[in-house]
Design brief:
Chain lengths: 285, 407, 301
């Protein structure tokens, strides 16, 4: 029994380590490329360690890479991204929770159909919704503003957020709910006093998903956020992408890694919560 | 942000004691280091003239143009937006979404100043809707002197046949003959080069401008397509998907001999501290009358009734075509000025060559996108890239192209 | 059982629920349903850069279905969807199950598998292009080490290029699948494990016959999320292959995007999106219906 276990455990570790190597391969190339000079990169030895290590690309990516007329790296967009991410996480989560709650416990007439259409909406690529959304926001007078981009992020995240919360609440025993109703609880009271306190794990999960998605979003921020609120991803794209300009791959890699540090930090910080969050039944139903 | 503050301060210092000059928010897609230096010359010119430049750079032409159109739709248009010298902004003109700049055009005498090809693009139904800033040539033939030396090629090829002979020599020497990036727009460039050099100016115009079905399905055009396909056999296996810069790198490191690419390639050579005539050579075309393919960038001015914005638009349009701005911009960008009456002392070898050719009006020829709509050009590119990558019978390709351009 | 509730206690709650759902209903109607209807209308016109009022019937759809690139993109997406969803599920499940074995360094391993999800595909896509390029990447490295015959050149092969896209996107997404399934695993009652151990059932049998069925709901949700990711496949193709070689790795979302902006052909792009959406709904609707019937049967609300 013991020897079989250790063979099995060897197998497990081998598989996990092998998978880890596969997953880490691109990261290795990115890191190594970001520490080389362009002359070295041009030689095309992808896996070679830098002959002459340089952190100039990192400095440049953060503060002096050109993103247009201005050559100030990606740092300019950092606070813009933060300013977009926070409301675009809070509002969808609030709405998602409220909707999930209404759809799971109360189920007013027509809500099932509403949910079905909402889920269908999850299959529409963002580009398709671009034109009509622009015109809607223009009519509302918020095209190119912070309110506009938050509204757009809310719209696009409604299907997944609602799904998450609805399924989570479906796993809460209905007896609790009925008891609260008998006690005289109305719609909002039950939400704030019973349901919301129980939602901490799922809110964590939703927050992680939303923060990652909004932080890395490019196309929506580009079109709807307005010039003053352009997120960091726009600078990142300006550094990386060009049609006829020269490409500085080392700076591009450094800039990408820098931009991804925020979602990565969020993962590190709440990794444990993330797992525990979904534990409580978000995935049922 | 800091730069903006400094520019604003400079404006206050230079300009009058009261309000800052006309503010222009400009959307463009010049985001790399060299391009940034180029747009700075334009911004500096505008600022010296008393204006205030607000920069909105968005990488990738398609993306930037899409944002410009979206902002116009959303009621928040920029003061000026970059487009290519092409039919891209015709729909905007038709929908009345652009302000014309007729006074500037008349004052500066654009009718006499601009090449006919460029004029035909910026002047629509008698009004002027775009200010051209430069001319790029997409079909230069670059070669690495080191690679040529290694392959024993003593002189620069002077005809299409000599080019193929050189490619054969490069292959024999174990080098990659043609450095190519397998992306559809790059295949379009190679085709344009072959059409111009193998087909000649007349055939070129018959196909791109007149879209004449008989010519497209004829023998001369077939020869062009076959030469195009023949070039594919000189590329290396890793070509598909490759960025054009990586192909230029192959020339820089001496691994490949020839690349067909636009004059912006000079930027990559310069970055690697290589200079024309010494480390690499540039061929505009074969034959004394080879055409100079014209492509370029222009700025359009979205419709607005705000008098300050209109002032900014007029000012911006007027600084674009001054000789000083033209030369300064093109030197940094790798292009050549739209006007040929400039001093070429500060221009590099290849640009001087280009300017000289442009002085001969009969050699001026527009790029595909000047004659075809974006949709037609796109459909053509689809067919070309399919033909480049697959073994299709050339007659089918001819038929497909005729159908695509008919639309 | 509970006493019959007075109707006047029920009504206000239901009303509040309806009111609370109002913003959602508005969003759904205006944004989603509205967009689809708008796209449908535009697809029946000759719109170029801007919407137009000139109706041309089904001409755009005709052009669409005579377009080799579009047809190829649909084929590619079908192939991609099968492989991507299948592999993500398998890899994600295996990773989750193996990590669930109380391995050392679980936190570190979980991070290693999750980090791709945090990175923008614009740069990681380019890295994959380099890695899979025969001259530059893995094939070159392996051959330099002495294994001459090895060929890792799918990315330049028209018939195999879609597999490279599958590879890169599975790399990006399976860590997330792993995390979700791991959570599902962790929510299974410890008593089940104890009972199985007492009964002497080997671990792998517990997984296959007991745990897997219990994960059914989790897997279903992951399936939906992966399906939506499949429809929206765009960034990976653009940054890895640009749809190439030729048009071999074209996908519908890229076709639509190219025609929407690059080709200034709003009508054709809209026709494409309508077709794409309807195809997916046709695929997914029966699944949803079956699932809701199953849920009613097992007593879910």
């Amino acid at each position: 029994m013991n020897s079989r276990l250790s063979v099995a455990r060897w197998g497990i570790y081998c598989f996990l380590l092998g998978a880890a190597l596969f997953f880490l391969l691109p990261a290795y190339v990115m890191l190594v490329t970001s520490l080389k000079s362009m002359d070295e990169i041009r030689l095309g030895h992808l896996f070679a360690l830098p002959a002459e290590l340089t952190i100039e690309p990192w400095r440049s990516a953060w503060s002096s890479a050109c993103t247009g007329l201005n050559c100030e790296g990606i740092r300019g967009g950092f606070w813009n991204s933060v300013g977009i991410v926070i409301p675009s996480t809070v509002v969808p989560i609030l709405l998602g929770a409220l909707n999930g709650y209404a759809l799971s416990f109360w189920r007013p007439r027509g809500s099932q159909a509403l949910f079905a259409v909402l889920m269908a909406g999850a299959f529409i690529p963002a580009q398709v919704m671009m034109y009509p959304l622009i015109q809607i926001l223009a009519v509302l007078g918020i095209f190119g503003s912070l309110a506009g981009i938050v509204l757009v992020h809310t719209i696009f995240s409604m299907p997944v957020m609602t799904l998450l919360f609805r399924n989570y609440y479906l796993s809460i025993p209905t007896e609790l709910f009925h008891a609260a109703r008998i006690d005289g609880g109305g719609f909002l009271r039950i939400f704030f006093e019973l349901v919301l306190p129980m939602s901490v794990p799922i809110v964590t999960v939703a927050a992680i998903m939303q923060i990652t998605g909004v932080w890395n979003d490019y196309i929506l921020g580009l079109v709807f956020a307005g010039r003053e609120h352009l997120p960091m991803t726009v600078q990142l794209n300006n550094i990386i992408n060009t049609t006829t300009g020269t490409r500085l791959y080392n700076v591009n890699m450094a800039a990408t890694i820098l931009t991804s540090l925020v979602p990565l930090a969020v993962y590190f910080a709440s990794g444990r919560w993330f797992v525990r969050g979904i534990t409580a039944g978000a995935l049922k139903g | 942000m800091l730069k903006f503050a400094r520019l604003a301060a400079l404006t206050f210092a230079l300009g009058s004691a009261h309000a800052a000059g006309p503010k222009a928010e400009v959307i463009h897609w010049w985001t790399s280091g060299g391009e940034s230096a180029a747009v700075k010359t334009l911004a500096d010119a505008y600022i010296s003239a008393g204006g205030v430049w607000v920069d909105t750079a968005i990488a990738l032409g398609e993306q930037a143009r899409a944002v410009a159109v979206n902002r116009i739709l959303g009621g928040n248009p920029p003061t000026a937006a970059q487009f290519n010298t092409s039919k891209q902004f015709l729909d905007l003109v038709e929908q009345g979404m652009l302000n014309p700049i007729d006074n500037v055009a008349q004052q500066q005498g654009w009718d006499k100043l601009l090449p006919e090809t460029v004029l035909s693009v910026v002047r629509v139904k008698g009004h002027y809707y775009a200010a051209p800033i430069n001319i790029h040539m997409p079909t230069w033939i670059w070669y690495s002197k080191a690679a040529f030396k290694q392959a024993g090629i003593a002189t620069e090829p002077k005809s299409v046949d000599e080019l193929f002979a050189a490619l054969d020599k490069l292959r024999a020497a174990g080098l990659v003959p043609l450095a190519h990036g397998g992306q559809p727009w790059q295949e379009n460039i190679v085709f344009t080069a072959v059409l111009a050099n193998v087909g000649g100016t007349e055939l070129y115009l018959k196909v791109f401008r007149d879209k004449d079905r008989q010519t497209i399905e004829g023998e001369a055009f077939k020869k062009v397509l076959l030469s195009f396909k023949r070039l594919q056999s000189y590329t290396d296996k890793g070509a598909p998907g490759r960025n054009w810069n990586d192909a230029t790198s192959m020339l820089i490191t001496g691994k490949a001999g020839v690349q067909i690419m636009g004059d912006w390639a000079k930027g990559e050579f310069a970055q690697a501290r290589q200079s024309p005539g010494k480390d690499y050579g540039c061929i505009a075309g074969f034959g004394a009358k080879s055409p100079y393919i014209i492509q370029g960038d222009v700025f359009v001015f979205p419709k607005t009734n705000d008098p300050q914005a209109i002032k900014a638009q007029q000012l911006l349009a007027s600084v674009m075509l001054t000789p000083a701005t033209q030369v300064a911009f093109s030197n940094k960008k790798g292009s050549i000025p739209v006007r040929t009456d400039v001093d070429n002392a500060s221009m590099d070898l290849c640009a001087q060559q280009g300017l000289a050719i442009m002085k001969d009006k009969s050699r001026q020829l527009g790029n595909g996108e000047i004659y075809m709509s974006p949709d037609q050009n796109g459909a053509l590119t689809d067919i070309l890239t399919a033909y480049w990558n697959k073994n299709l019978p050339v007659e089918k390709v001819q038929k497909d192209i005729a159908a695509a351009l008919k639309n | 059982m509970t006493a019959p509730r007075s109707w006047w206690k029920v009504r206000p709650g239901q009303l509040s629920a309806s009111v609370a759902l109002l913003p959602l209903a508005m969003i759904v109607l205006v944004a989603y349903a509205g967009t689809v209807l708008w796209s449908l209308r535009v697809s029946l016109t000759d719109a170029r850069t801007f919407p137009s009022d000139v109706y041309v019937g089904l001409a755009q759809y005709e052009r669409l279905f005579h377009n080799e690139r579009w047809l190829l993109s649909l084929n590619n997406l079908a192939l991609y969807g099968l492989l991507f969803i299948g592999l993500c599920m398998v890899v994600g499940l295996l990773l989750a199950v193996f990590i669930d074995q109380k391995v050392r360094g679980e936190g570190l391993l979980r991070t290693v598998f999750l980090y791709p999800y945090a990175m923008s595909f614009v740069a990681t896509g380019l890295v994959w292009q380099w890695l899979l390029n025969p001259e530059l990447g893995l094939q070159n490295a392996v051959q330099t080490l002495g294994f001459d015959g090895v060929q890792i050149d799918w990315i330049v092969d028209q018939d195999k290029v879609m597999y490279t896209i599958v590879l890169a996107t599975v790399w990006q997404a399976s860590g997330f699948v792993m995390a979700l399934l791991l959570a599902g695993l962790r929510s299974i009652d410890a008593q089940i494990w104890n009972a199985a151990r007492i009964d002497g059932i080997p671990t792998w049998q517990v997984y296959v016959f007991i745990v897997l069925p219990m994960l059914g709901e989790s897997i279903a949700t992951v399936f939906v999320l992966l399906l939506t990711a499949t429809v929206k496949l765009f960034d990976a193709v653009v940054s890895m292959t640009q749809g190439g070689p030729g048009n071999a790795s074209e996908v519908p979302a890229k076709f639509i995007m190219d025609h929407l902006f690059g080709r200034a052909n709003l009508a054709l792009a809209s026709a494409g999106s309508v077709v794409l959406l309807l195809s997916f709904l046709a695929l997914v609707a029966p699944l949803f219906y079956a699932r809701s019937r199953y849920q009613k049967r097992v007593g879910h609300p």
